[in-house]
């Protein structure tokens, strides 16, 4: 693909909102000198790997992704990976609740600010109120930008007994230097995962401002935005075992990039053979209008 910073090519499977998000992010990356990341964002989901079953000859196309934290396509794929990784833990949650905690807004985003937020949440989890009620959970850290500057907050899917919101607010205020906004509600586990992992940053809050994107990239580099604890800690489902094939390995089990919504196949979906072979690498314009695997939203 040719590099054209004035007009990044649209992705035909993206809704208009996602196209706008990606266009803004592409321009911001380009203007701050992150040319490779700009191109990766632009091309995310445009290249496909085509696999073929050696027994029934069925073919499936799987898109490649850029795996960047701000990419709207990869955010959706990240949600699917979390659902798959913690399937067992999620299925055993008895009283799922969504807990939202806010932190003090700051004009500038720094690594120290993010570390401080993480420490405050860790201290909060060691309180008697939390230990007595919460069996475990998974938390996503989120950053938005508004009139007051950067606004950190966290969304947690927890397996918890009833906790009065007044007590939660009082305890959180002690550990967050006075931040008081707390919200807790009952949810379905999948709905809770959607809130936790769908975005680590709100799409419309700062993507169109290159200087803010630069701040975000510098402050969040090598920073974890997802935390598990209690019954969720170290309970991820193990990857499926390698299976022999005619070519000596199954490419679906070799960290093959999987498009959003697609199953992580270990065998042919038609004849159930595990003799899968990579046969081609294709660009978006080489895929029919209705490819075997599209990108659903």
Topology diagram in text:
Blueprint: H1 16-31, H2 35-43, E1 47-53, E2 59-63, H3 72-85, H4 87-91, E3 96-102, H5 111-125, H6 128-133, E4 134-146, E5 149-160, H7 165-175, E6 182-186, H8 189-197, H9 203-206, H10 210-220, E7 226-230, E8 276-283
Helix pairs in contact: 1-2, 1-10, 3-8
Total number of domains = 2
Oligomeric state of the chains in view: single chain
Helix content: 25-40%
Give the strand order, joined by hyphens, for the main sheet: 6-3-5-4-7
Q: What is the H/E order?
A: HHEEHHEHHEEHEHHHEE
Class from secondary-structure proportions: alpha+beta
Unreliable spans are 1-11, 240-264, 289-297
Shape: flat
Summarize the structure.
With 297 residues, the chain is of the alpha+beta class.
Describe the structure.
The chain has two domains: 16-74 and 239-286, no CATH class; 87-230, Ribosomal protein S6/Translation elongation factor EF1B (Alpha-Beta Plaits). The longest helix has 16 residues, at 16-31. It has ten helices and eight strands. The protein has a five-stranded antiparallel sheet, sandwiched between helices. It has a three-stranded antiparallel sheet with strand order 2-1-8, with no helix packed on it. The chain is an alpha+beta fold and 297 residues long. 34% of the residues lie in helices and 21% in strands. The radius of gyration is 21 Å and the shape is flat.
Provide key terms for this protein.
disordered C terminus, 3-stranded antiparallel sheet, 5-stranded antiparallel sheet, 2 domains, alpha+beta, 297 residues, 10 helices, flat
């Amino acid at each position: 693909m040719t590099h054209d910073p004035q007009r990044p090519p649209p992705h035909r499977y993206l809704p208009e909102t996602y196209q706008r998000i990606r266009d803004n992010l592409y321009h911001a990356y380009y203007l701050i000198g992150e040319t490779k990341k700009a191109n990766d964002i632009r091309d995310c989901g445009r290249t496909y790997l085509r696999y073929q079953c050696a027994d029934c000859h069925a073919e499936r196309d799987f898109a490649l992704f850029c795996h960047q934290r701000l990419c709207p396509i990869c955010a959706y794929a990240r949600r699917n990976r979390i659902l798959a990784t913690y399937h067992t833990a999620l299925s055993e949650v008895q009283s799922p609740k969504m807990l939202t905690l806010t932190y003090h807004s700051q004009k500038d985003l720094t690594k120290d600010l993010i570390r401080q937020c993480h420490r405050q949440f860790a201290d909060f989890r060691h309180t008697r109120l939390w230990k007595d009620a919460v069996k475990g959970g998974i938390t996503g850290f989120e950053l938005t930008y508004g009139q007051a500057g950067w606004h950190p907050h966290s969304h947690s899917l927890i397996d918890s007994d009833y906790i009065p919101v007044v007590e939660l607010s009082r305890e959180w205020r002690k550990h967050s230097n006075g931040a008081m906004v707390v919200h807790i509600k009952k949810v379905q586990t999948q709905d809770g995962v959607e809130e936790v992992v769908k975005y680590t940053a709100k799409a419309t809050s700062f993507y169109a401002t290159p200087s803010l994107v630069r701040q975000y990239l510098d402050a969040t580099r090598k920073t974890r935005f997802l935390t598990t604890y209690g019954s969720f800690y170290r309970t991820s489902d193990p990857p499926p075992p390698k299976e022999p094939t005619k070519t000596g390995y199954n490419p679906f089990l070799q960290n093959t990039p999987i498009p959003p919504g697609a199953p992580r196949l270990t065998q042919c979906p038609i004849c159930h053979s595990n003799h899968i072979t990579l046969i081609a690498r294709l660009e978006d314009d080489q895929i029919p209008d209705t490819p075997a695997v599209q990108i659903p939203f």
